[in-house]
């Protein structure tokens, strides 16, 4: 196995050194489900979160639907069909079925654990939605109850490997103690979320693609990185990216005249175009008083910023913007090679938004209920398999080497200026006319600069302890942007969320998954997607 | 962004230092915590949700500082308002009747 030439490959040490069967990196829904599942297999588990497990990530500050569908064949078939075409027919029916089964069991488990589901008029428990703060508070509690050791405020900086190339743990910093940690583990679950490029979309600023970088440094592959164009609506200058209620909105120019074709669903690219040069206003004028009451209960955080600035969204127009959610509500991520959510690297598993969600969503946003279902399902599978694998290798004496490259490995150049690097990457991925509305010419133009940034960074000396987290976040975002745009350039059609102005039509000769990987040189490959002829979706 | 820690309300429990996902607060020996890295605030409101004393206020502006004061917030009764709206208070929050909640399903 070949390692990137910048890999540190030295024997690591840290202020806090621990041994475990399984290390889970990331403490959102996928990470906590993974940790609990691994512990249930008898594994000794450590979970490291960049922030605080329970408040960190896109789910905790939000509310989310869950793809919870009772096992009635007609309802299941309807649920699967509803997103089939929207996802550009790239989802995998077999995986959709597995996720529906697993999600049903996991959500019922949440009820047993005491999650406060409400009842409907007939007294049946309503289980197709979760409030983020309650859900993640409960998941933290259950993770601790399972005997998992949680390291909060402990961003990972790199993976560790053995001399065969298998993963052997991870190392990072304890930012509130200004020292370092290291966990030697036989299996690692990457549950670090997607990458939203520090756009301040709700809860997303801890999601900088770190796990994608770490895994790629060990040779892991990605899939579907062209499906990374998710933008969500928010009050101008705000952070609360709850897009659903804009289904009840009318969109207008500043002078009050309607914007032709603008809509939250099916007309968001019109809004993106207008926002490039003018402000866009919304008003939820299609909702009546009773709908307002239901909305206020269903998503209190939607109203939080509006109430605080004194806007009545039902009776007043208010300016909106679109914030990049990148691969968080896109569907690309680490490539999964089997039903255990294993990556191509021995011992390394991926779950939640860090993994590709093409298997369940195809080419269209995995946001909301599908992502929530995928997080708990893939977390459960990855954790279970990691638990087995980790325990199986217990007691094996392995050489442990550092696997991190740019920003943590020592180079001859000057240290990376993380803020400047981050700003430069954002300049290529935030603009609507580069990422949302893509063209071959503009993608190539951006890639020229992004590749140049990589060349400039790859010989940098290692960041200081203080700057290590920001530096690696910048490097991870840079790597992510290059996989995204290379993948986007290779898909010469428009499918799902990936829209090319120069190839506006769907081309069914491209009904494949785009794989990618590499750091200095990015490679692109294809994997065949399951065809509907193989498995018919009808009930 | 997080803008205010009310000195009158804060008991110095430092829960916010712990729960903030982006490490914005810093503890102070024998005192109440400070907003040490305001630029890192992602405006996710989690500190407010977890504050047991309703002592924090996050302005909804993610990119600019509003300079709102404690007096204004007390006058508008905004401390603890988000906790209340998500039901993290005694008694939770009342759910509207099912036929009202169904209004969200048709669009």
TrEMBL record, chain A:
Residues 21-228 form the FAD-dependent oxidoreductase 2 FAD-binding domain. One of its GO terms (molecular function) is succinate dehydrogenase activity. GO terms for biological process: anaerobic respiration. Residues 467-515 form the Fumarate reductase/succinate dehydrogenase flavoprotein-like C-terminal domain. It holds the Pfam family FAD_binding_2. Keywords: Flavoprotein, Oxidoreductase. The active site is at 268 (proton acceptor). One of its GO terms (cellular component) is plasma membrane. The keyword Oxidoreductase applies. This is Succinate dehydrogenase/fumarate reductase flavoprotein subunit.
UniProtKB/TrEMBL annotation, chain B:
It comes from the Bacteria. One of its GO terms (molecular function) is 4 iron, 4 sulfur cluster binding. Pfam families: Fer4 (PF00037). Gene3D superfamilies: 3.30.70.20. The keyword Iron-sulfur applies. Keywords: 4Fe-4S, Iron, Iron-sulfur, Metal-binding. PROSITE patterns: 4FE4S_FER_1, 4FE4S_FER_2. Residues 1-30, 31-61 form the 4Fe-4S ferredoxin-type domain. This is NAD-dependent dihydropyrimidine dehydrogenase PreA subunit.
């Amino acid at each position: 196995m070949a390692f990137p030439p910048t890999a540190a490959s030295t024997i690591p040490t840290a202020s806090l050194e621990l041994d475990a069967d399984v290390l889970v990196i990331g403490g959102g829904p996928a990470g906590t489900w993974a940790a609990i599942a691994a512990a249930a297999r008898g594994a000794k588990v450590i979970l490291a979160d960049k922030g605080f497990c329970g408040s960190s990530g896109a789910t905790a500050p939000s509310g989310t639907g869950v793809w919870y569908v009772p096992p009635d064949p007609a309802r299941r078939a309807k649920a699967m069909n509803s997103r089939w075409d929207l996802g550009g027919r790239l989802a995998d029916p077999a995986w959709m079925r597995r996720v529906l089964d697993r999600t049903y069991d996991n959500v019922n488990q949440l009820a047993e654990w005491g999650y406060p589901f409400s009842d409907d008029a007939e007294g049946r428990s309503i289980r197709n939605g979760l409030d983020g703060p309650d859900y993640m508070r409960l998941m933290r509690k259950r993770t601790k109850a399972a005997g998992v050791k949680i390291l909060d405020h402990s961003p990972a900086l790199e993976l560790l490997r053995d001399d065969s190339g298998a993963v052997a743990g991870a190392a990072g910093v304890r930012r509130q103690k200004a020292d370092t940690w290291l966990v030697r583990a036989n299996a690692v679950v990457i549950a670090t979320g997607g990458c939203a490029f520090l756009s301040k979309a709700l809860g997303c600023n801890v999601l900088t693609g770190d796990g994608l970088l770490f895994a790629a440094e060990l040779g892991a592959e990605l899939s579907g990185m062209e499906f990374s164009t998710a933008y969500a609506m928010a009050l101008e200058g705000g952070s609360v990216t709850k897009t659903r209620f804009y289904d009840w909105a009318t969109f207008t120019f500043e002078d009050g005249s309607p914007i032709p074709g603008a809509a939250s669903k099916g007309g968001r690219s019109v809004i993106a175009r207008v926002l490039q040069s003018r402000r866009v206003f919304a008003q939820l004028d299609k909702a009546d008083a009773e709908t307002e009451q239901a909305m206020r209960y269903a998503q209190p955080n939607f109203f939080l910023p509006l109430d605080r600035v004194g806007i009545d969204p039902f009776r007043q127009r208010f300016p909106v913007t679109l914030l990049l959610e990148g691969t968080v509500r896109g569907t690309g991520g680490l490539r999964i090679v089997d039903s255990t959510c294993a990556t191509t690297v021995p011992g390394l598993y991926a779950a939640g938004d860090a993994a590709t969600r093409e298997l369940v969503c195809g080419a269209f946003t995995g946001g909301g209920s599908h992502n929530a279902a995928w997080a708990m399902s893939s977390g459960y599978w990855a954790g279970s398999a990691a638990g087995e694998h980790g325990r199986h290798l217990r007691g094996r004496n392995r050489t442990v080497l550092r696997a991190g490259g740019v920003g943590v490995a020592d180079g001859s150049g000057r240290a990376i200026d993380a803020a400047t690097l981050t700003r430069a990457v954002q300049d290529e991925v935030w603009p609507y006319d580069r990422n949302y509305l893509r063209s071959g010419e503009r993608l190539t133009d951006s890639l020229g600069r992004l590749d140049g940034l990589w060349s400039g960074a790859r010989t940098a000396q290692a960041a200081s302890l203080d700057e290590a987290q920001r530096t690696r976040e910048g490097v991870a975002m840079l790597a992510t942007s290059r996989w995204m745009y290379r993948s986007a350039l290779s898909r010469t059609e428009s499918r799902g969320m990936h829209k090319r102005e120069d190839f506006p039509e769907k081309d069914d000769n491209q009904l494949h998954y785009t794989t990618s990987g590499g750091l200095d040189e990015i490679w692109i490959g294809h994997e065949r997607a399951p065809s509907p002829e193989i498995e018919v979706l009808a009930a | 962004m997080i803008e205010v820690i009310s000195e009158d309300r804060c008991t110095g429990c430092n829960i916010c230092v712990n729960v903030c996902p982006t490490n914005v607060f810093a503890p102070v020996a024998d005192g109440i915590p400070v907003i040490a890295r305001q630029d890192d605030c992602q405006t996710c409101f989690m500190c407010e949700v977890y504050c047991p004393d309703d002592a924090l206020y996050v302005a909804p502006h993610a990119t600019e500082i509003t300079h709102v004061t404690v007096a204004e917030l007390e006058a508008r009764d905004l401390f603890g308002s988000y906790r209340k709206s998500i039901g993290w208070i005694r008694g939770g929050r009342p759910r509207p009747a099912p036929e009202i909640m169904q209004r969200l399903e048709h669009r």
